[in-house]
Amino acid sequence: TSATSTPPATTSAPPATGTTGGTSGATGAPPATPAANRTTGAPPSKAATCATDAAGGAPPAPLATSTAGDTTTAAAAATAADAADATLPPLAGSLAGPLIAIGLLALRPACGITVDPLVALPAGGLAGILCTRRLRKLGESLAFGLEKMSLVAVLLVGTGTIAGVIKSSSLRDWILGSLNSAGLGESLIAPVSGALMSAATASTTAGATIASSSFAAVILAAGVSAAGGAAMINAGATMLDHLPHGSFFHASAGSMQIDLKDRLKLIPYETLIGGFLALFSTLSCLLLNIS
């Protein structure tokens, strides 16, 4: 009789999860997910991820981004900016025109020499063109200026007409009667007249001029000093000088390139600022008795 021998064991333990060899490498199947991760749905542990990367399952590393294109774009932008700056006139030449116009207008208070703005402003513009050496663009500059100032010029003519009508009307007597009926002192005639005249003309200059020429005698007779009366009239004239029928409204809207609807939204804020200015000016003049 031959002894019965047991066959050798052929069952071997499966390789550890996450190792390089084993059944994963033989069959091409992905590495087994750890039990903890299968049950909880949590991401693989750091050790398992490292093992997977070593087995060849790591994603490719991102390619380095070349900065050559960005450098070229920046250089082109810098070159374009330099070319644009080269076409601009020098600062001294650009300031020459406004300074000359201001100097011509300042001759009246400084030396008693009156230069009409219709002469001073075009003279300053022509001097600016000559100083900036843009004489070949004279026609283009004149067309641009007329386009921007045509509306303002028409409004100034209308404002001057309104000022003349108000000065020749009985509005002065009506304002004095209204103040007396309201029980307000005659010392308040200065700021009130400045505000009303600026509302009628939509101009600080025209409003203050008409108010001072129409109410100067009454203001001085009320015991207000000349300096105090002038300060209150000027402060009151800033309250309503920005109404739509004036040049300031359209000039500021054109400079900021905003439409009429957005410009109208600013009127309450401008009125509030002018009101505070007139209030503090009036209180300062009356309380401090500025002479």
Summarize the structure.
With 291 residues, the chain is mostly helical.
What multimeric state do the chains show?
single chain
| Major pleated sheet | none
Helicity level: 55-70%
Mean pLDDT across every amino acid position = 74
Span from first to last CA?
Answer: 146 Å
Shape: elongated
| SSE arrangement, N to C | HHHHHHHHHHHHHHH
SSE-based structural type: mainly alpha
Low-confidence stretches: 1-42, 46-55, 62-66
Radius of gyration: 42 Å
The number of distinct β-strands equals 0
The helix count comes to 15
Q: β content, as a range?
A: under 5%
Walk me through what this model shows.
By secondary structure, the protein is mainly alpha-helical. Helices cover 68% and strands 0% of the residues. The chain contains 15 helices and no strands. Helix 11 (204-221) runs antiparallel to helix 12 (226-237). The model is unreliable at 1-42, 46-55 and 62-66 (pLDDT under 50).
Short descriptors:
68% helix; disordered N terminus; 0% strand; mainly alpha; 15 helices; 291 residues
